[in-house]
Structure formats: structure tokens, C-alpha cells
Amino acid sequence: MSSQTPSAEKRVVVEPTPAALATSVAERFLTRVRARTRNGRIAHIALTGGSMGGAVLRATAEHPRCASIDWSLVHFWWGDERFVPRDDPDRNSLQSRQALLDHIPVPPENVHEVAGPDSGLTLDESAAAYAAELARFGTPEHAWPSFAVCFLGVGPDGHIASLFPDRDEVTVTDAAALPVRDSPKPPPERVTLTRPVLNSSKRVWLVMTGADKASALGLALAGASYTSVPAAGAKGRKRTVFFVDEAAAAEVSPDLIDPAY
Predict the structure, then answer these.
(1) Helix or strand or coil: residue 241?
(2) pLDDT single digits (tens) 113-155
(3) 28: alpha, beta or left, given left = phi > 0 and alpha = psi -120 to 50?
(4) Does pLDDT of 169 surpass 60?
(5) Which residues are CB-neighbours of 141 under 8 A, at least 6 positions away?
(6) Which long-range contacts (CB under 8 A, 24 or more apart) does 126-132 make?
(7) Residue 168 CB neighbours (<10 A)
(8) 202 Cβ neighbours under 8 A, 6+ residues apart
(9) 192 with 114: CB under 8 angstroms?
(10) What is the number of other CB atoms lying within 10 angstroms of the CB of residue 95?
(11) Helix H segments across the chain?
(12) Quick one: which of 4, 53, 33, 31 has its CA closest to 243?
């Protein structure tokens, strides 16, 4: 697509309801993973938490094609994590395990969770350990893997992962993972990937539903400053797609909606 305007590089796919959206994204996700692993290649996937992150993974687990994937070739990571014990309901990884990972034959060593306080690590040590784990799968260009798909939720304030508006973390470019303290959204302590890591993904898929997300979506598509609206700075190397329901798409111009994607 043309890159003449900020929104021209971004696609918007609209489904009528959150349930329909979860099913649609799950189908596309399985298609992507299948294409990536068909010839024995490894697929690195960055997951997100939240209600829609879980809904997409549940729809993936329930899809008939889920059983046809060689999950031994797939590695799972998280764009951010709440610094709470591994079995705390607030953990993104726990939600992901319950929705999908516990239901597929993925090797435990392919699931790269952020260490919580029950690991004996401090918040800073957890972020450093996650960066080191990312580096084990780094590419010649970067000290982290290139994600085939990076899922991101978007908050009403436009935040992605744990990169919140007008905070220092959103501008950091010299680290792969950061500790986050005093998060505007509880719990207060988190670990997040940085913008360079997210944007080195082949595909960035932002999944958002609800009328309270309409303003953030509009600003992201309008090319707002990524420091004030972090979602505006999310960009995959090959594709950037906003998957939304009709309520979230209320302020999107019809010419930005991609009916064919």
C-alpha cells in the first residue's frame, strides 16, 4: 500500500462483534503459523493479555485447524507481563496458558515467561533476564527474535504492552526489555518489551474492541505522536493491522477499512 499518509501503511479489519473478531483473528493466526512452519521454520509469537487476547487464544484452541499445527516449531513470548507470581490471575502468561498453551503440544522450553517475584528475582533482574532470554534467539540484526506475529492490545489511553503515554519507557531504544514501576494501570510493577522489539516483528496485529477504544484507534490511524499515543507508533515490518469490532471502529473513515484483508 502507499505510504503517502501515516494511515496508508495500516490496515483496519472490522468484524461486527468481539466474538466474531476473536474467531476471525484466530483463523488468520493459524494460517500465518501454518505458513511459517510448513517447511520446518521456527515461528516466534508475541502474545498479549486482556480480554481479547484471551478470546483470540481460546478461539485458536477451539478451531479445527489447531490440531494440524506442529507446535514444536512455535515459540511463545509476551509483549509485557505483570510482575506478580506465576499463578496470579493478573499474569498474562497464566491467561494464555489457560486459553491455549495448556491445550496444545508445545514443548515447555518453547514458552518464554517473564520471571515473577516468586522466582526470587527483583523487578530489574526479571527484565534483564527476559532480555537475556530474547538474546538467545536473536537475529544477526537484533538481540531478540523477529516475531512472525506480535499481538498487541490497546488501552483507551492508546498504550500498548506496558508502554504508557508520556512516560520514559516509550522512548527507550537501547534495551529489549524494561522494568516498569508505578504503572498508570494496576498492578504497578511490570516488565515490557520496548518499541524497537515490537516494531521488528513481521506482523503487528492490534486487537481492540469497544466504544471506549474508538478515540485511541482514531488517533493511532491519524498519525498522532507515539509518545502520547503509543499505539500510533506500532508498525510491523511487513503488515500492521488493527483488528476491531464495529464499536471500536465508530470513528474510522470507511476508506481506511480494508474489506479484502
Answers:
(1) strand
(2) 999 999 999 999 999 999 999 999 999 999 999 999 999 999 9
(3) alpha
(4) yes
(5) 200
(6) 126/83, 126/179, 126/191, 127/177, 127/178, 127/179, 127/191, 128/177, 130/176, 130/177, 130/191, 131/175, 131/176, 131/177
(7) 10
(8) 146, 147, 148, 149, 236, 237, 238, 239
(9) no
(10) 21
(11) 18-37, 50-62, 92-99, 123-136, 195-199, 214-221
(12) 53
For residue 18, whether the previous peptide bond is cis, meaning omega lies within 30 degrees of 0, is: no
Rounded to whole angstroms, the Cα distance separating 171 from 174 reads: 9
The string of DSSP letters for 79-97 reads SEEESS-TT-TT-HHHHHH
Residue with cell 526479571: 126
Length of the chain: 261
Statement: residue 159 has pLDDT above 80: yes
Banded pLDDT at 254 (limits 50, 70, 90)? confident
CA atoms of 70 and 42, how far apart (whole Å): 10
- 119 contacts: CB under 8 Å, gap ≥ 6: 86, 126
State the Cα–Cα distance between residues 152 and 50, nearest whole angstrom: 10
pTM of the model: 0.94
* Cβ within 8 Å of residue 166, ≥6 positions away: 227, 228
- Dig out the grid coordinates for 179 from the structure: 522494568
CA pair distance 210, 21, nearest whole angstrom: 12
**35: its cell numbers:** 505458513
Q: Which amino acid is at 88?
A: D
DSSP type of residue 244: E
- Predicted pLDDT of residue 261: 61
67: burial class by Cβ within 10 Å (0-12, 13-18, 19+)? exposed
C-alpha span between 141 and 190 (Å, rounded): 27
